[in-house]
Design a protein that fits this description.
Helix 3 packs across helix 7, helix 5 (about 125-140) packs across helix 6 and helix 7 crosses helix 8 (about 210-220). The chain has eight helices and 15 strands. It is an alpha/beta fold and about 260 residues long. The strands form four sheets. It has a six-stranded parallel β-sheet with strand order 5-4-1-13-14-15, sandwiched between helices. The protein has a five-stranded parallel β-sheet with strand order 7-6-8-9-12, with helices on both faces. It folds into two domains: about 5-45 and about 180-255, 3-Layer(aba) Sandwich (Rossmann fold); about 75-180, HAD superfamily/HAD-like (Rossmann fold, 3-Layer(aba) Sandwich), CATH 3.40.50.
Length: about 260
């Protein structure tokens, strides 16, 4: 017998919003979760913004999500590092979402003999900062990256993202990073812990087979792929794994909350 879904995790871009606009059913889905008191988190691999920033952006699109319901790869990375080495130090390439998360986790941000080099998302990757990161890793700093996405969207087209820059640093140092964000199921498990939810009673909603769905499967969740983002229906069969269901949009899940 299929157990009732009592908690929900949802990706953000391609599921709830696209280019700053709410997707059909997104506001209603979040409203249903709130009305029924379901534990939920909105997940994103984007490490640029703080939860407060993201909550404001979602409100502007008509979706009311409090910052306590947002879980980013930056927050997951900060928690991972704090668990691994409490009160450590890091040299960071990234924006406020990442630096704030690490600072609040008790980390010292420094370029002097850091324990870790942490690579995140930024729209202004600096050759000098990348060079510094390479030299620190060569000197013994451990290499961490928030997420493996190689491109990010913009109005003008794709931009190089964390995964692409990580590949550059890996080529220069011979050291591969540990990616914390999706598809690493660690990000899903840390989200479950945050809302005190059990994997067997939780669903993951995403628009990408290679990050959202596979991470949900590996964490033991039921998975729903919506076709409002990156993955098309004809692409699903190319993967060696399947979501629990494929749906046109998150609007099809409102009545199932």
């Amino acid at each position: 017998m299929t157990r009732e879904i009592t908690a929900w995790l949802s990706d953000m871009d391609g599921v709830l919003v696209h280019e700053g606009d709410a997707l059909p059913g997104a506001a209603e889905f979040i409203g249903a979760l709130q009305a029924k008191g379901r534990p939920y988190l909105v997940l994103t691999n984007n490490s640029i913004f703080t939860p407060r920033d993201l909550a404001a952006r979602l409100r502007a699109s008509g979706i009311d999500v409090g910052e306590e319901h947002l879980w980013t790869s930056a927050l997951a990375t900060a928690q991972f590092l704090s668990d691994q080495m409490p009160n450590g130090s890091a040299y960071v390439i990234g924006e406020a979402g990442l630096t704030t998360a690490l600072y609040e986790a008790g980390y010292t941000l420094t370029a002097t003999r850091p324990d870790f080099v942490v690579l995140g998302e930024t729209r202004t990757y600096s050759f000098e900062a990348i060079t510094q990161a390479i030299r620190l890793i060569q000197g013994g700093a451990r290499f961490i990256a928030t997420n493996p996405d190689v491109t990010g969207p913009s109005a003008e087209g794709d931009l190089p993202a964390t995964g692409a820059v990580a590949a550059l640093i890996r080529s220069a140092t011979g050291r591969s990073p540990y990616f914390v964000g999706k598809p690493n199921p660690m990000m899903i498990r840390s989200a479950l812990n945050r809302i005190d939810a059990h994997s067997e009673l939780t669903a993951m909603v995403g628009d990408r087979m290679d990050t959202d769905v596979v991470a949900g499967i590996e964490a033991g969740l039921r998975t729903f792929l919506v076709l409002t983002g990156s993955t098309r229906a004809d692409q699903v069969q190319r993967f060696p794994f399947r979501p629990t269901e494929v749906l046109p949009s998150i609007a099809d899940l409102v009545e199932r909350v």
